Amino acid sequence: MADPRALAQELAAAYANKQQLAAPTTREAEFTLAAAYATEAELVRMRKNAGRCTVGLKVGFANRAMWRALKLDTLVWAHMYDDTVRYADACAPEPGQRRTNAATLSLARAISPKIEPEIVFKMKAPLAATTDAAIALEAVEWLALGFEIIDCPYDGWKYQPADFVAAYGLHAALVVGEPHPVTSANIADLVEQLPVFKVRLSKDGQLVEEGSGRNSLRSPALCLAELASAMARQEGAGPLAAGDLVSCGTLTESMPIQPGATWTASVEGIDLPTLTLTLV
Description:
The protein is an alpha+beta fold. It has one domain: Fumarylacetoacetase-like, C-terminal domain (Fumarylacetoacetate hydrolase, domain 2). The protein contains 8 helices and 15 strands. It has helices spanning about 5-15, 25, 35-50, 65-70, 135-140, 160-165, 185-195, 220-235; strands at about 55-60, 75-80, 85, 90, 100-105, 115-125, 140-150, 170-175, 180, 200-205, 205-210, 245-250, 255, 260-270, 275-280.
């Protein structure tokens, strides 16, 4: 069986040195999700020993149609850190234009990065297992549009769910836009909006992808509920807690990125500002 500590050190070194390696499942056929979560926990321990702290969770495989082929019965997750999450700045809108948030991010440490527009939640209370979107939102302080940057140390971006979990969930950075408060007065509206809102992803002003809230497990709120339920079933996983950030899976196809480009995500059907990220 793989040694979680040795594998965590190998993966951390691969990212630090911008080197690719063979995925654990290609080296050990019985590398399981349990072993992957043990490796991810070791990475958390290593990062905490280096002075960092966890600030929440990102999910992966928030697409139920993929589960049967991948032998999954739920989504997967990994931690995010205080030095990988940042907040965009609000920009004064032009007359007649939507509010805009903007940020700049360096890719100097990336191996093979991609960008994903996502809905980000901040928890205000613990969330136990549930299948109800409204109940999940009752535990949320705010939601925002975000860009997650993922980065893969595996050859050719070829990996299984266990490989994904073991490698930080491929999490490299999260850029969070302006928060939109979640209150008892707007939960019912958000339950209706989150499955159907539209997102457009553009590069240097040119549309490259479109998606919707339905791509995140039929609704980001349902994705949040599924995460809480999955963590309740996973041995050693604590519940979602007040203050946690949760990035709920990509709303479009993941797109390769490189320095020098500016990416924009704009939405219709939900009150969230346009988010722009310049890569350097």
